Amino acid sequence: MEEICISIASKIVEKPVALIGRQLSYLIYYDSNIESLKDVLKNLDDKKNDVQRSVDAATRNGATIKDQVQSWLKDVSKIFREAEELQTKLNMQRWCPSLKSRYSLSRKAKKIAQRVLDPKLDEGLSNNVANPAPVPQLGSIISSEGFKGFESRKDVMNDVLSALRNEKTRIIGICGMGGVGKTTMVREIIKRLQGTNKLFDDVVMSTVSATVNIRKIQTEIAESLDMKLVEESESIRAQRLHERIKQSKRILIILDDVWSELKLQDVGIPFGDHEGCKILLTSRNEEVCKTMGCKDNIFRVQALNKEEAWELFKATVGESLDNNNPHLLHVAEMIADECKGLPIAIITIGKTLVSIDKNEWDTIREQLKNSLPEIIPGMEQSVYSCIKLSYDKLDSGEVKSCFLLCCLFPEDYDVPIEYMVRYGLGREIFENANTIENARKRVHFFVGQLKRRFLLLDSEKEECIKMHDIVRDVAISIASKDPHRFMVRSFDVEGGGGGWPGLQKATNQEHCSAISLIDVKLDKDIIDGLECPKLQLLQLRNSSSSSEYSNHFKRLRELKVLAFLRMDMSGYLASKRSLPLGEPKYLHTLCLEDCKLGDISHVIGELENLEILSFARSQINKLPREIGLLHRLRMLDATDCDGLEEIPHGVLSNLRRLEELYMAESFFNWGPATGSKDETSMASLDEVTSLSVHLKVLAINIPDRQMLHNGFLLKNQHIRFHVSINARRTYYYKMLRYLFAKGSFENRMPGYLFENSLMLLGDVKEYLEIGAVRYFLKLSKNLSLHHTYNLKYVIEELDDEGGFQHLKVLSIEYDNNIEYLMTRQHSAFRNLKSATFKEVNKLKVVCHGKLPDKRSFMNLRSIAINHCNELKYVFSLSVAQNLVQLQSLNVKNCAKVEEIISKERMEDDNASHRISFPRLTFLKLSFLQKLHGFYTGNQRDSTYEIIKPNYESANKTKETRNDNQVAGSTSSGSKVAQVGASCNALFPSNCISWLPNLEGLVLKSLTSNVVFDLEGHDSAFSQLQALIADGLDEVEHLWKNVQPGFQGFQNVRTLSIGACNSMKYLCPYEIYKLLMNLEEVEINKCENMETIVLAAASTEDNIHDETGGSGAMTLFPKLLNRFNLQNLSSLERFCPDAYSFAWSSSTRIMNVRRCPKLKTLGFAPVSKKLPAVAKNLSDDHVRGREESGSGCASSTRSRSGFGCAPLVCLRSRPSTRNFTQILPRPVNREVMPANLQTSSASDNLEDLYVNRCDLLEVIFLVQETPSTQAFDKLRELNLVELPMLSHIWEKDLQVSSGFGNLRSLRVVDCDNLRYLFSQHIAKLLTSLETICVSFCNAMEKIVGEAEGGGESIEDELTFPQLNFIQLRYLPALESFCSQACTLKWPALEVLIIVDECPKLKVFAPESLYV
Fold first, then answer.
1. Mean of pLDDT values over 133-154
2. For a Cys staple, 1148 with which of 85, 185, 201, 1201, CB 3.0–4.6 Å?
């Protein structure tokens, strides 16, 4: 019994003793455990490398890696991550050692080692790491060669990918002209999808093409799904394919090159009954995408911009482009320009240039310029056939003819659509077009078709289109062949280039039907001229002649259209010479536009069949009486003929077939309707009245309303009219025309599709006594009241009964009497789309009183209000409820405006809850000095919580500010104050939800202290793309009361802030992290701004987690084209002191100027893949940085791109001595000085400019890897006024390559700089051409001597491209480099300029070779 008790007691004592011993062993064997872990990790690392090499080899062979192997690699990676964390803690405990930390770390090391040695870790791991390769996926067998990550493509592709991720999206369309790169983009999208964590189980693709083959499409889809269709019947094949597709839970079907609607059910594609099936189609015809159900998911691919086109061209041409040959570069740039951004043209021509001698490049350029693409090898089968196919698929001969007419005009020309109407009518290409109006509508319909098929482009000018130059070249080629036989030539008038012989040879043929000569000098040496008996259309533009035009054109028997555009014909016509009319009886259209004309009476009389006659914008003082003999004339256009003073009486009344008369901004001298008439009498308005039976369109100025008392009444109520009354040709009227030229006078005839328009000037009461004016008012759709008076209430006095139900556009300017549009409870303005009020000085409100009719203003799209100084608010709540279609609102310079929307006394208190502006996309509020907010009605009567700002606490470390809260955000623990209207937000919380789709917001010179009060909102402004705030001098916060988890502002692309002097920070962290799509940021003249991002103490844990514990935020990670900081005298940093920024590699342009207190531009964590750089920095260097306590600032400027983390200085960091390392490769998770870091393939920095950054010490610190190519695109480096700069390149920096494209180095006013670069760096600067150094008081040498024995000073330095050196005002300069160097400047062309360098005795060493 005693033995049993002893045994039990011994075991009871043994277990605690063993437990205690094991715990003590962690302390005793601390060093041993760490060393053991090093050994096992080394062995594990070797094994991991072996397995990884096998995996890489299997992957290259297309094999599938086994799941067990992938799991093993994940487990091993997890072990190494834990080891990294342990290593970090080991180094940290050196500074605060304790028994507790030694115990914990030793125990952790032991546990990790045991896991590594556990046999279970290697279970399932064998020599065979992969299974045989499966059938290749679609992404692996297609090529996206030629796709470049251009910005114009990135946005479209990202939008498509976003749509594909949207669960509600079923079908997506990508549209663009032929050859623009749609298919290439789709292939790249397929490759991107493979890396998106199984977005689709299957991705299949079929090319539909112009000739639809259902069986082929079915086969292509089936084969991609590893399925065979052996059935002959298309319907059975479709049924089988339908069943197979439905088996895929998530499948993407890509239909490429769709020309017409494809019935998906005929193919077997389930659409509508399979939610997991998405369809992506490409087409040249936007209508096809809409017909197939794309609706809102149609994405357009445009041509490349000039920079992108040049990059693609250079990539295609490759080494054939000699950068040292200026002439060849110039020719290449011109060739690239001729391609006008069309990728297929750039690649085709680029590959052609590679295969030919460089001496032939000039020939290619000339052929492209002269529109002869079919001569260029390869062009015919690619570019030409691509666009020709689009042309062939047009619906009718009429639309094809309209398309070809566009090529008659110069490159990049804004082609007026009206020319197609007039030329088409003259050539009789329209069938069953009974009136000119019908023909015009038909042409505009055709233009819409051509634009949707990307054969024509939109123009910024009204009623104009543009034609892509490559499309134009193909159109010219098509038109030059049978049956069209067009000839289009452009020549240089001033240089007399492209002489006539080539022109004559090219066009001297029997069957030519249309000729367009642009900038042609018709030389006197021409004798025979052109013999084109079948010529129907002749257009001369900007041409000149020293002899008779008719001498140059023989046997023009069938000419139907003759156009002289922008020509001086006064001298020619004064000599009574005839035009090249051929047989006058055939001519239908004569256009003498923008010309200087003389007496044309002898030309007009013979044109008995003329139907269209235009003198638009020409200098002509009298319409010849012979026009009255043109009994078939259907259109007379004298628009904008400033000098037209005479129209003889009886001319207009004889034109009994006239359908359209345009006299806008032209003739004013109308004669009286009564009294005797003689040869000196002027045309009268009663002549116009007599025409109104057949007249369809009338544009006319009536200089005096008294002329209307005699009964000017149009007999046809369907006439479209554009009438201006009382607009006399006086100084005042000329002033209006001048204002129009400056862009502020809006009543000029807008084009030839105008709707009924009326402009009144003067006394309105007198107008209302005239029946004709009342008639025009009733039918007007566009009403302009300019400088009117005696009008107080617009509706009540002008159209009390009708309420302007037809009116679409209303413009009121310079009126001193109007107070309201309406005051009673009317039903009015149901169709009003646009309203403009400018200097309506007594306007109090748009509509006074409650608006009972829900249809009033319901179609209003745009309203602009300017200089209405009695206006206190724009809309009442009842009016605002109707504005569901409002898209644009612009209010400026209104001295008394307090609100945009206001609650009137009789309105419902809850009316504000029913307001929304779902279509408002643009809002501009500017120079409104009394504006309290967009809507402040409920805010004034209530209080709500906002957070007290505390800037001082925001700048302290996390440990010292746990009880403070930043003004920009809200948390449960924040300190709040009960305040009411004192918040004074431009967008108070009670109206934030009214603007769900706002895209552009411009705020200028306003007085509120908050822009967005987000109290109580978890989302807002998700569609906003541009935010511009300028002159908001009292604004302290752009964003305030940001709620936890708030979502919004994520689509902002442009952020511009200027002259906001009360702002101390740009945005709180909660908003900053949402701004992931920013492309342009500009902050200027905010004198109190101290930081860009401000984080509250309560958010710091979130920041730590979101940055992976590194403390480094990636600044605007997606894309930042431009980042400008200027004139920020208080800016010290970008983020809180405890955190740092890493710059996105996609940053293109950065400019930091006059920010004297800026301490740092950011930090970047060292990549795991980079070797630790700690050993490269001495303790003295680190200590010096610590003691200085100051950061650095840099300013960068780039023309082509920016891709590196900018320069920073390290605030503090531990010593690097006794650095503990347990991992087999150095991994350092400590935040290191990033400065301008190692570049990568995506880096684009070309031009770096740093100016007036007073604390900057070093520019470049490069962390080297085996493949380091540091800043390989950098071309120009400019450093100006940097007083603390001690090194451009970090001291003792050693990189194997980089800086190889640096061309120019300029340093000015850097008084702490002793040399420019070391000998090691000098060897990298193989492209350096220019060195300019001035006003650097400490500069001793240009090339510094080696320090620390890093390299021999007895070395050879060669600058192969250096051709210019300028050294000025360098009082300490002793020599260019060490006398022991051998210096070679083989390209030196300009004498070295040395000025005011008193210590310079020996400029260069004896061993100098020039």
1. 54
2. 1201
Strands of 1216-1285 (E only): list them. Answer: 1231-1232, 1247-1251, 1258-1260, 1276-1280
Give pTM, 2 decimals. Answer: 0.70
| Farthest CA pair distance, the chain | 155
Q: Say if residues 1373 and 1394 touch (Cβ distance below 8 Å).
A: no
Cis omega (within 30 of 0) for bond into 483? yes
Type of residue at 943: T
Top mean pLDDT of 455-464, 512-521, 847-856 is at 455-464
Is-contact 721 756, C-beta < 8 A? yes
> H-type helices in 697-788, by residue range?
731-741, 764-767, 771-779
For the record, the structure tokens of 1323 come out as 């060897």
Give the residue, 211 or 1192, on which the prediction is more confident.
211
Give the torsion through C-alpha atoms of 963, 964, 970, 971, to 10 deg: -10
Q: Is 1017 helix (H, G, I), strand (E, B) or coil?
A: coil
* CA 1035 to the chain's CA centroid: 29
Task: Report the distance separating Cα 1089 and Cα 1134, nearest Å.
Answer: 10
pLDDT band at 1352 (very low <50, low <70, confident <90, very high): very low
Hey, what CATH topology would domain 138-300 get? Rossmann fold (3.40.50)
Alpha helices by DSSP H, 721-860: 731-741, 764-767, 771-779, 794-798
Model pLDDT for residues 348-376, shown as the tens digit of each residue: 777 767 767 777 787 777 776 665 555 55
| pLDDT above 70 coverage of the chain, percent | 72
Taking Cα atoms as reference points, which of 679, 682, 674 lies closest to residue 703?
682
**C-alpha to C-alpha distance for 1160 and 1152, rounded to whole angstroms:** 12
pLDDT reading at 378 higher than 60 = no
Q: What is the mean pLDDT of the chain?
A: 76
Q: Per mean pLDDT, which range of 13-22, 381-390, 479-488, 692-701 is the poorest?
A: 13-22
The confidence band for 398, taking pLDDT boundaries of 50, 70 and 90, is: very high
Q: Could you report the per-residue pLDDT of 1223-1234, keeping only the tens digit for each? A: 554 333 222 222
Q: Please enumerate, as own/partner, the contacts of 29-33 that have beta carbons within 8 Å and a separation of 24 or more.
A: 29/106, 30/102, 30/105, 30/106, 33/106, 33/109, 33/110, 33/113
Residue 1351 to residues 497, 1323, 1347, 1356, Cα–Cα distance (Å): 61, 12, 8, 12
Question: Who has greater pLDDT, 1405 or 823?
Answer: 823
Which residues lie below 8 Å from residue 913, measured CB to CB, with a gap of 6+?
A: none
Whole-number Å distance between alpha carbons of 923 and 838: 17
Helices (H), 427-466: 436-452
Instruction: Judge whether residue 280 has pLDDT over 50.
Output: yes
CA within 13 Å, CB half, 723: 27
Return the closest-CA partner of residue 971 out of 1096, 862, 1056: 1096
Chain position carrying tokens 């993407």: 252
Residues 532 and 509: beta-carbon distance below 8 Å: yes
* DSSP string for residues in 657-722: T--EEE-TTS---PBPSSS---TTPBPBHHHHHHHTTT--EEEEEES-GGGGGGT---S-TT-EEE
Residues of the chain with CATH 3.40.50.300: 138-300
- CA separation, residue 476 to residues 409, 480, 558, 1049 (Å): 10, 6, 22, 48
Q: How far is CA 322 from the centre of its chain?
A: 32
